[in-house]
């Protein structure tokens, strides 16, 4: 169980981002945190990373409800990024929605590893790291 | 003899009409009888000419008299004399010349007999003989000579000079029973003095078979038959007709027996009623109990029919109408039979009705069948008329033969109006072919009925939904005669169905908004509450002052957001709960103009060009506050998402379409990628633009408000060209 190089948070809620960042720091989750405020920004950012030959963040924490492009739309567009080594990226849905329909829908996406209910606590992140390590 | 007489007694004394004439045909003398016969007064006729005294002697007689001088024997002449009064008399003259000396004729002796009576009787006989084709015959048994009269000879087709004998006479009878019979009859007459009168067949000299009536009588003198005489009559025509009649009668009897036809004959003069064999079982009357008069017939007739029958009988007897009728009779066992009766009249030579002959037969079964038929027809008519289901009799060409009240009511036409139309006229065009195809199957005899759901147009133009059942009716030969259509109006049902579909849609919508609402609660409220719980935990653990301040600020943000979300939700709940009762008529143009005025500063700031074209008379069913809110939202959206590359332009127009008002709100702004966001456009907290004010609540509330007013909102948009919101309101 070692820390990872970089992770990405896609969420429009500044408070939620604050919380996640705080928890990450607490457990020394990663070296680098990339933040996008909606799906479109994230697609654009990740796209240019691939173009620049940079390695994608190995973990993406994705909120569902966002303006412009929501989490679902992001998932649809993400797999379309050309030359993208999506296998090295693990995506977790982070949402405050306790609507079972959202949870079921999330499980239908093969890209999505798990669904984590907000607020995100440091324990959630530790479990996440251990899951990756055992893979 | 006369010579002797003249010498002994005077000729005047003779008891006969006798006269002597001289050679000049003048009277020498005459008997008193002669005088009485030819002279009215006691005139002396001696010396007068025969022709002066008997002036009307025919010329022929004059010649006879003149010739008489040369005759030796007496001659007998029968002459018809026309008297001065025009009447005629037959005289028989017996004329003989008398001699003065051996060689010299002195004159004529004339004896006169009036034979008028005898002559008439004889003439009558001959006439009768001719008319009746009746001949006479006379057989002298002593001399065995036979005399046939003229007619008798004609009947036998022998020449007038033919001389028959007893044997040849008998041989004219047809061999076999006829000849045997006549031989026997003659024998009986000769030996037992019996007369005969029989009908037998002869074969004439020309080989023709004839029926004759032979009548004969013997004359006996001293117990010995001396003479046979009789008459002989040609009855061939009558006999053959009789035989033919007998055959016809036999056939008729057989026919009437088989057909169970009763025949009766009523003699009007003596009130005698004859019945044939069939009549008795027909009327259920025993032969021995029948009185053979009019009364006994009357007794059988049903009391309710009697009066009418008697009237018809009288009318027939008075020749006003034929006796062709129908009546009921009651059998002794109480059963009622229906009798059909026809009769004809027989009149005597004076045209007086003497009898009526007629037929009777039992039509009970026919009448009962007819009654049943009438009843079933009646019950059909009854149910046709009063049926709650629309019914029609339809001709093969589709025209109505008859329609019932229910159908008229369903379709809104009066009976007369509907009868002028065909079913094609009132059928919804989309349903016509289906109906016609089914009908064709019946017309071609490939089916008896069909069943379909179709639409008619009501007189007022709206649609009537029906279930139609068409049944083919065939005539007695099995040919298609017409159709019976049953038209069940299911409009109410269809309307109810539509309503329940609408309700279902409404429920579905409400359900959807409930789900949506649940989602909003589970997500939006929770996102704030989770933030708050997270932040408050941090606050408890955090010791750094600046950090705490930061967290506290975020807690305030989160609680404000929570408050805002709760307000929004409240607003939505308000819309769905309070709306519909508050609908009122609102003038659309006024509303639009007001909202435009309220945000005019905002519009001016952005240089928005507004083009409002709404007929001032347009009113919608709406809620003032909602309409304000909707328009304000649309205006601000258009301003907010206007394109920086062009002058913002908003055009608003409204049109009345049927019972709705359609408001088109169009801008030339950024537009929305509908392919991508279409589904979520009117969802809560959905934003599609990178804009600081985008909260994703406006269109959600707008949609809810419009739907609360029974309207709907649709959108057309192209990115970077503009957006058109099309809002449908209910017209006031």
Keywords, separated by commas or semicolons:
heterodimer; A: 135 residues; alpha/beta; Rossmann fold; five-stranded parallel sheet; 5 helices; globular; B: 732 residues; alpha+beta; Beta-Lactamase; 6 domains; five-stranded antiparallel sheet; 27 strands; rod-shaped; TCS_response_regulator (chain A); CheY-like_superfamily (chain A); phosphoprotein (chain A)
Give a nutshell description of this structure.
The complex is a heterodimer of chains A (135) and B (732). With 135 residues, chain A is α/β, with parallel strands linked by helices.
What does this structure look like?
With 135 residues, chain A is α/β, with parallel strands linked by helices. Chain A has a single domain (4-134), classed as Response regulator (Rossmann fold), CATH 3.40.50. Chain A has five helices and five strands; from the N terminus they run βαβαβαβαβα. In chain A, strands 2-1-3-4-5 form a five-stranded parallel beta sheet, with helices on both faces. In chain A, helix 3 (71-78) links the parallel strand 3 (59-62) and strand 4 (90-95). In chain A, helix 2 (39-51) runs parallel beside helix 3 (71-78). Chain A starts with a strand and ends with a helix. Chain B is an alpha+beta fold and 732 residues long. Chain B folds into six domains: 2-119, 2-Layer Sandwich (Beta-Lactamase), CATH 3.30.450.20; 132-240, Beta-Lactamase (2-Layer Sandwich); 260-368, PAS domain (Beta-Lactamase), CATH 3.30.450; 387-489, 2-Layer Sandwich (Beta-Lactamase), CATH 3.30.450.20; 495-575; 581-730, Histidine kinase-like ATPase, C-terminal domain (Heat Shock Protein 90, 2-Layer Sandwich), CATH 3.30.565. Chain B is built from 24 helices and 27 strands. In chain B, strands 2-1-5-4-3 form a five-stranded antiparallel beta sheet, sandwiched between helices. A five-stranded antiparallel beta sheet of chain B has the order 7-6-10-9-8. A five-stranded antiparallel beta sheet of chain B has the order 12-11-15-14-13, with helices on both faces. In chain B, strand 1 and strand 2 form a beta hairpin. The longest helix of chain B is centred in the last third of the chain and has 51 residues, at 491-541. Chain B is rod-shaped. Chains A and B meet through helix 1 of A and helix 18 and helix 19 of B.
